[in-house]
Design goal:
Layout: H1 2-24, E1 31-36, H2 41-48, E2 60-65, H3 74-83, E3 97-98, H4 105-114, E4 126-127, H5 131-141, H6 149-156, E5 160-166, H7 177-180, E6 186-187, E7 189-191, E8 197-199, E9 207-209, H8 211-223, E10 226-233, H9 235-241, H10 248-272, E11 278-283, H11 288-292, E12 297-303, E13 309-313, E14 321-323, H12 327-334, E15 348-351, H13 356-395, H14 411-428, H15 438-457, H16 461-481, H17 507-527, H18 533-551, H19 559-577, H20 583-606, H21 614-623, H22 627-647, H23 649-667, H24 669-678, H25 681-699, H26 703-729
Parallel strand pairs: 1-10, 1-11, 2-13, 2-14, 5-7, 5-10
Antiparallel strand pairs: 2-12, 3-4, 4-6, 8-9, 11-12, 13-15
InterPro entries: Alkaline_phosphatase_core_sf
Length: 741
């Protein structure tokens, strides 16, 4: 009897432990992801103020950079989201189909292309037979993206996946399976065909998504243990394809209706979630009108059962802003799965104290700066080039232009000084309330820069340019050390919409930092009589502070800047302290610079992953011998520099500056020699800026921009000094000695 009782006890324990497991898998947390093509940030901003959708304020919300390896099309954005690296897919990537659709047509296509079928297919499986096309596209573009990687990793860790919905019209467009498929193009469960649509007679094309069927599918899959479900709610994209044949009023009416119904459906899905589930809603592309208005940040929001806040990531380090490459690593992290090295994004996190009101204000600023930046910077570059050419024409004796005789002699130096005031004024422009239009910005620049140029022009030559240098680099450094709030909102700062950089210091202001610092320190050394120990200490301390700033991940975070300021700083220090230039000292200085750079890179690499900058992650790739990724990084940087050299306004400014400097130096040798004799600090400034600019062009992507702005701090004082020397040489006697006041 005891044996029988013990046997029954063992059976009961087995049944209790074993049998519920198969049915209990649905109680494990799931991740729902909703892709909505042609959804804009403005749509979400407007809907969040609607009393019907106050529950939007319970979400953690943000905007997403939409840069891909190709264009802003939804196929490329979804490819990037799924790959965790900027990717591009051909149009065949849209053409997933269910195994049971069209009497198994997709099975025949798959067998024709691959020679065999994947194993473990069911009636609910979704297939994409064009995986080789996707792989070849990314191999050709050298993106490093692996189609199906997200689904493959989830499958290896036992996470079941499903996809549903589409954006079909006359042609197939099915994006959701791109996130759920494995590397063979297989999604285990799905409903992406015509059966997921409903007939609507008064809607263009006559078909819309069947929201109730989507919810029913989600509930069934969830009960069967599916933990990663991706929906494509494609009605907005469907409507956009018929826009050309509609009146604008009809289109606006239908779009508002579709937006509302889409949000109502998301609300219903949200209520269907269980404890621990997460719901991530992402815009898979932007509407044409938003792109035309240069509003290129897409909305993203998350419900995770906690309080609202702002989404961020280690990629951007800015509350409310993420990158599209961050989504795939985030999904893996939510499931507790290590992120593969092929994914370059970083997991999302939520800043809980952030507010949506502040987010929309920040988005408005970023959109405004991106849209109006060309109207500020292109005219500025044009004015600089025009002023430099005019000054050189005035200096060359064999060019005679009659109208120049009537110009006041001080007008050209005044104008050139005013142009050097533009970078620091643009730095402080974000302190101005509101979002000024380009006309207002130019009126402000004209007034402030002219006043500054006039006031500082009353000082002696060396004093004047010393303070121009200080005013250019010192506020820039102080802002960078205190959070870079001015840099990130400046026209000369980095642009999160483009997505080349999200934090630190960009190439434009690094050029200003280099040029202003070198000019002011060289002229300070001139005032101190050169080779003074005190001046050498100032140069060393300031140089070390600048070096730490550009190198540290939480500050400037500029890999090329490390080498730029090491090279420029060593040259400046040797000039000021009087260390002779020989092969021995040059070799020693180069070794010290290289050792210092390696030290900074290793420190960056040794930081926790969340605190590393892109520099530290690149060092990590080098340490593990990922040479293919290192090659891609080098290729991207070389390609970017070459593209800028061929097409950028900054490259034209840099090349024109070099030509003009060489032309004037060869034709005005006597005046140049007198200028250098009068101001022996100028050669030090010229050499420091020259070395830093060369290193920037060679080692920094977009280094041509850094060089173009840095060279201005050498060329403008040089031309102004020559204009002064030419004016003095026409007087019968002159013995003026220019010095600091």
């Amino acid at each position: 009897m005891k044996k029988l009782s013990f046997f029954c006890f063992i059976i009961n324990v087995y049944l209790f432990v074993s049998y519920p497991v198969a049915g209990a898998s649905y109680t494990q947390p799931a991740v729902y992801t909703v892709l909505i093509p042609t959804l804009s940030s403005e749509d979400i901003h407007n809907l969040s103020r609607n009393s019907e959708f106050l529950w939007l304020k319970e979400a953690a919300i943000g905007v997403m950079n939409t840069r891909t390896a190709a264009s802003l099309q939804d196929i490329h954005t979804t490819a990037t989201i799924a790959s965790g690296v900027r990717a591009a897919y051909p149009e065949q990537g849209r053409r997933s189909s269910g195994v049971a659709e069209q009497n198994g047509k997709i099975l025949r296509q798959y067998r024709q292309l691959h020679g065999t079928l994947p194993v473990n297919l069911t009636e609910e499986s979704i297939l994409l037979p064009y995986i080789p096309s996707l792989e070849k596209e990314n191999e050709w573009r050298n993106t490093g993206a692996i189609p199906g990687l997200l689904g493959e990793v989830l499958e290896q860790h036992g996470i079941q996946r499903a996809s549903a919905g589409n954006s079909d019209t006359d042609s197939i467009s099915r994006l959701a399976p791109l996130l759920t498929m494995n590397r063979q193009g297989v999604t285990p469960y799905g409903a992406v065909g015509a059966d997921i649509l409903r007939d609507v007679s008064d809607f263009p094309g006559g078909r819309r998504i069947d929201g109730e069927r989507l919810l029913a599918k989600a509930a069934t899959w969830r009960q069967n243990g599916v933990r990663f479900i991706v929906f494509e709610h494609g009605d907005l994209a469907r409507l956009a394809r018929y826009r050309q044949g509609m009146s604008e009023s009809r289109y606006a009416e239908l779009r508002a209706s579709v937006l509302r119904e889409t949000l109502v459906w998301i609300g219903a899905l949200r209520k269907q979630m269980q404890a621990g589930d997460r719901l991530l809603v992402v815009s898979a592309s932007l509407p044409a009108e938003a792109i035309a208005q240069k509003k290129r940040l897409a909305p993203i929001f998350l419900w995770d059962g906690q309080s609202s806040g702002l989404l961020t990531s280690g990629t951007t380090r800015r509350p409310g802003l993420i990158a599209n490459i961050d989504i795939a690593p985030t999904i893996l992290t939510w499931f507790g799965i290590p992120v593969p090295s092929e994914m370059k994004g970083l997991p999302l996190s939520v800043v809980r104290e952030g507010g949506q009101t502040e987010l929309w204000q920040e988005v408005e600023k970023m959109d405004h700066i991106y849209a109006t930046r060309p109207a500020i910077l292109y005219p500025y570059v044009g004015l600089v080039v025009f002023s430099l050419i005019l000054a050189v024409v005035t200096l060359l004796p064999w060019i005679r232009i009659r109208c120049l005789r009537w110009w006041p002699p001080a007008l050209l130096p005044f104008g050139l000084r005013a142009l050097l005031f533009v970078p620091p004024v643009l730095l402080f422009l974000p302190l101005m309330p509101g979002l000024p239009e380009p006309t207002v910005v130019w009126l402000l620049l004209l007034g402030i820069c002219s006043t500054g140029a006039y006031a500082i022009g009353r000082l002696p030559f060396a004093t004047c340019f010393f303070w121009i240098g200080v005013l250019s680099w010192l506020p820039l450094l102080l802002d960078g050390l205190s959070g870079a709030e001015l840099i990130k909102h400046s026209y000369l700062g980095y642009d999160p919409v483009i997505g080349a950089r999200y934090y630190g210091i960009g190439n434009e202001y690094m050029g200003v930092l280099l040029g202003g610092w070198a000019l002011s320190l060289a002229l300070l050394a001139e005032y101190a009589g050169l080779r003074r120990r005190g001046c050498g200490i100032v140069a060393t301390v300031s140089g070390l502070v600048l070096l730490v700033y550009v190198a540290w991940p939480g500050l400037g975070s500029k890999a090329g800047g490390i080498f730029v300021f090491l090279a420029a700083g060593l040259y400046l220090g040797m000039r000021i302290t009087g260390i002779p230039f020989s092969w021995r000292t040059i070799t020693l200085a180069s070794g010290m610079a290289l050792a210092g750079a390696v030290l900074f890179l290793i420190v960056n690499y040794r930081l926790p992953a969340v605190d590393q900058s892109h520099i530290g992650r690149a060092v990590g790739e080098l340490m593990v011998g990922n040479w293919s990724e290192i090659g891609r990084i080098v290729e991207r940087k070389v390609a970017m520099n070459w593209k800028l050299i061929l097409s950028s306004a900054w490259s034209r400014l840099f090349l024109i500056s070099l030509v003009l400097a060489a032309l004037v130096a060869s034709r005005r040798r006597a005046e140049s020699q007198r200028l250098i004799a009068r101001h022996p600090g100028l050669p030090t400034a010229f050499g420091t800026i020259g070395i830093g600019s060369i290193v920037a062009v060679l080692l920094n992507d977009s280094g041509i921009i850094t060089a173009a702005l840095a060279v201005l701090y050498a060329l403008v004082p040089y031309i102004c000094g020559l204009l002064d020397e030419t004016k003095l040489s026409k007087k019968p006697e002159h013995s003026e000695q220019d010095s600091f006041s």
